[in-house]
Specification:
It is built from 9 helices and 22 strands. With 448 residues, the chain is of the alpha+beta class. It folds into 3 domains: 235 residues, Methylamine Dehydrogenase, Chain H; 69 residues, DNA polymerase, domain 1; 72 residues, Herpes Virus-1 (2-Layer Sandwich). Strand 6 and strand 7 form a beta hairpin. The longest helix is centred in the last third of the chain and has 16 residues. Pfam families: SAM_2 (PF07647), U-box (PF04564), WD40 (PF00400). This is WD repeat, SAM and U-box domain-containing protein 1. Keywords: Repeat, WD repeat. GO terms for molecular function: ubiquitin-protein transferase activity.
């Protein structure tokens, strides 16, 4: 935690089980900070003293999202198992009143609205509207009705379909009359949550959308993507009224000429690589060193261009690169980066017309399928003593370079069956499953 005025570190908070932190949120009244972890728990911290108030248990998978009701009386949390829990944050502090499975294969995000009813009245008397999204390609809206302090009625209001891939983020506009969602299908969709209708589809990202957020006045919507850009979309042009953001579905929704790429000054979607880089139409073995470096920068490793230039790596040499030559000749020491370059080169070789399609198989790869060490799709996944899943070759290589940790991996404990079942289901549904083995090793006790 840091002070806003001088950005000095104020506190360091850690879960009792020292699990990785997936999400953290302040309550609207600024009294609480909640953090969700890989250890399947949430911690509630007092903002004034940074003291741990309560460790909330009940989830059976990683906690990946949480949200407070507008009055800070309730807190919702979601996990990879697909469950939403709603916790009392007032009179019966830390009491869980709702445990509901809402999305197959996992919840990705959730949010509360400041409005409730079909006519858009403000929340009151324990009536709330909540949105969730998940790995089943759906956005769902829920009525949350509090019956005193002992029970909550949690019912589905709308199921919003339209995305063609897992939905990673959703958020309400500050005035509550719009709902945005971002997905692996590379689109951001705008919905009217009061009647459950689609309003607009924003297209322009070339990789999957990871997050979205409204400006405080709801005039702009920002979306972040794995294509390394943030795009700003204008909701309202000529009116600041809330109604304009809901009723207009045409000219009022234009992409602003702003992205995180400094050279980008156009609102048009990014052109395909094959059209913007004509040399990609040439056979790879005819590429010059400059063209190889251009390709290297496109896949995100421009910092190694000097290494390639010094070793005169042209198209022919690119085709002959191996893990060993990348490490010893080009001094690329990270196993994951070497593997990424080799795989990107192989995709080029497989595609008769190299271009953006050569990386399409990366677009729908959830983070859970990637080895934490190599950051590549796991071919032979194993679960180590720390509870994380790794590519066998990568973790074995890492262990060999850190022998002091080997003894710690000799006594591994079995990971919960629920996690494995969730991962297996994800693999079967995901389009990248054909490159992964069906067998998941539950445990290993030693390294060969």
């Amino acid at each position: 935690m840091c002070r806003r005025q001088n950005c000095r570190k104020r506190a360091v908070l850690e879960h009792p089980n020292r699990g990785g932190i997936r999400v953290c949120k302040f309550s609207p009244n600024s009294l609480f900070l909640v953090s969700g972890s890989d250890d399947e728990t949430l911690c509630v911290w007092d903002v004034l003293s940074w003291r741990l108030l309560r460790n909330l248990k009940g989830h059976e998978a990683f906690v990946v999202t949480c949200a407070f009701s507008p009055d800070s009386q309730w807190m919702a949390s979601g996990s990879n198992s697909g469950e939403i829990h709603i916790w009392d944050m007032s009179l019966n502090f830390g009491n869980c009143l709702v445990k509901e499975e809402v999305h197959d294969l996992g919840v990705a995000a959730c949010d509360f609205s400041i409005l409730y009813g079909y006519d858009g009245e403000p929340y009151e008397n324990g009536k709330y509207l909540m949105a969730t999204c998940g790995q089943d390609n759906l956005v769902k809206l829920w009525n949350v009705l509090c019956n005193g302090v002992l029970s909550i009625t949690f019912t589905n209001r709308y199921v919003l379909s339209g995305h063609t891939a897992p939905v990673l983020s959703c958020c309400f506009s500050p005035h509550g009359k719009l709902l945005a969602s971002g997905s692996f299908d590379k689109t951001v969709r705008l919905w009217n949550p009061l009647n459950g209708t689609a309003v607009k589809i924003f297209e322009g990202h070339t990789r999957y959308v990871t997050c979205c957020a409204f400006s405080h006045d709801a005039v702009f919507l920002a979306s972040g993507s794995n294509d390394k850009t943030v795009k700003i979309w204008q909701i309202e042009n000529d009116s600041q009224s809330e109604e304009a953001g809901v009723s207009s579905t045409s000219e009022s929704f234009n992409q602003c000429p702003v992205t995180s790429t400094p050279s980008s000054t156009s609102s048009a979607p990014m052109q395909s690589i094959s059209s913007s880089m004509p040399h990609w139409q040439k056979p790879i073995n005819r590429w010059t060193v400059d063209e190889v470096c251009c390709w290297l920068g496109h896949i995100g490793y421009s910092n190694y261009e000097d290494n390639f230039r010094q070793n005169v790596i042209d198209g022919s040499e690119l085709l002959s690169l191996t893990q060993e030559s990348l490490e010893k000749s080009l001094r690329i020491m990270a196993y994951g980066i070497r593997n990424k370059i080799i795989r990107a080169r192989d995709f080029l070789m497989e595609d008769a017309t190299p271009g953006i399609s050569s990386q399409a198989d990366f677009d729908y790869t959830p983070d859970e399928y990637l080895c934490p060490i190599s950051r590549e799709i796991m071919q032979d996944p194993v679960i180590a003593a720390d509870g994380y899943t790794y590519e066998r070759a990568a973790i074995e290589s890492w262990i060999k370079t850190a022998p002091d940790t080997e003894s710690n991996c000799q006594n591994a404990d079995t990971t919960s069956y629920h996690k494995l079942k969730t991962l297996e289901s994800c693999l079967k549904r995901n389009r990248t499953a054909n490159v992964m083995r069906k067998h998941i090793v539950k445990i290993w006790n030693s390294f060969i």
